[in-house]
Specification:
Blueprint: E1 4-9, H1 16-30, E2 36-41, H2 47-53, E3 59-62, H3 79-84, E4 87-92, H4 95-100, H5 105-117, E5 121-126, H6 130-134, H7 138-153, E6 162-165, H8 179-196, H9 198-203, E7 205-209, H10 214-221, E8 228-231, H11 238-256
Parallel strand pairs: 1-2, 1-8, 2-3, 3-4, 4-5, 5-6, 6-7, 7-8
Bound molecules: 2-phosphoglycolic acid.
The site of 2-phosphoglycolic acid has 13 residues, from strand 8.
Length: about 260
């Protein structure tokens, strides 16, 4: 049984005041939502502040890291530093970083490896653009993104990782993959991993991300290969984020019956 995970990617949003309010609100609401792993991913500069406001029911994660340690990398933050301030998870390969910050396959793999070496769990994001989907390239693109990391880090590394399928055309656009579209890609991702290592494929959590909201979360989370969500816009309001966490809890409880 895979435990559902809901992660809030706050991206470059918020202020000192607003992240504290958000952390307090999520922590309070999460206390009545066992059965779901809840993670928040604030901007780097607010990590310690947010951590101080999180209860035991919410875990801390980061949106990025630099794959190096204790050296002259002006402006960068290492995995060890993230771990030091309480992070458990870190995003790797988010499509915004792939597209805007030139995180190519080798950088994504290096970040994935550095995260694990420091004891963090990487959330590896994969996803196709609209043009790639329209050209029937979805599976090819996803396989390449996944296999690039598996080749560098080794398939066993997936024992301590989470995957997030985020169709680029659905991120921040209000367009969501239908549950059937998402399920098809999630099943494909799982099958790639199963082909390499059956147990790992069965155990790994695959989150969906891309305009997941309170009104579509339950249907997406009901799909057999969708094990949670990576939430952008809807994670910036306490109520909408907790509503998605509650939908995950309802799915988890009904699965257990
Ligand atoms: P969105 O973002 O929920 O605003 O579409 C998801 C993400 O980019 O992680």
């Amino acid at each position: 049984m895979r435990k559902l995970l809901i992660a809030g990617n706050w991206k470059m949003n918020g202020s000192l005041t607003s992240v504290i309010q958000l952390a307090d609100g999520v922590s309070k609401g999460a206390a009545v939502l066992p059965d779901v792993d809840i993670v928040v991913l604030p901007p780097l500069v607010y990590l310690s502040t947010v951590q101080a406001h999180l209860s035991n029911y919410v875990m801390l994660g980061a949106q990025n890291l630099y794959p190096g340690d204790q050296a002259a990398f002006t402006g960068e933050v290492s995995a060890r530093m993230l771990k030091d301030v309480g992070c458990r998870y870190v995003l790797v390969g988010h499509s915004e970083r792939r597209a805007l910050m030139h995180d190519d396959f080798s950088k994504v793999s290096a970040k994935f490896i550095a995260a694990q070496a420091a004891g963090l769990t990487p959330i590896l994001c994969v996803g196709e653009t609209r043009a790639e989907r329209e050209q029937g390239q979805t599976e090819r693109v996803i396989a390449a993104q996944l296999e690039a990391v598996m080749a560098e880090a080794g398939v066993e590394s997936l024992a301590n990782a989470v995957i997030a399928y985020e169709p680029v055309w659905a991120i921040g656009t209000g367009l969501t993959a239908t549950p059937a579209q998402a399920q098809a890609v999630h099943a494909y991702i799982r099958q790639i991993i199963v082909k390499n290592q059956v147990d790992l494929g069965a155990a790994i959590r695959i989150l969906y991300g891309g305009s997941m909201k309170p009104d579509n979360a339950a249907a997406l989370l009901a799909e057999p290969d969708i094990d949670g969500g990576l939430i952008g816009g809807a994670s910036l309001e306490v109520d909408s984020f907790l509503a998605i966490c509650a939908a995950a809890r309802a799915t988890a409880t009904s699965d257990n019956c």
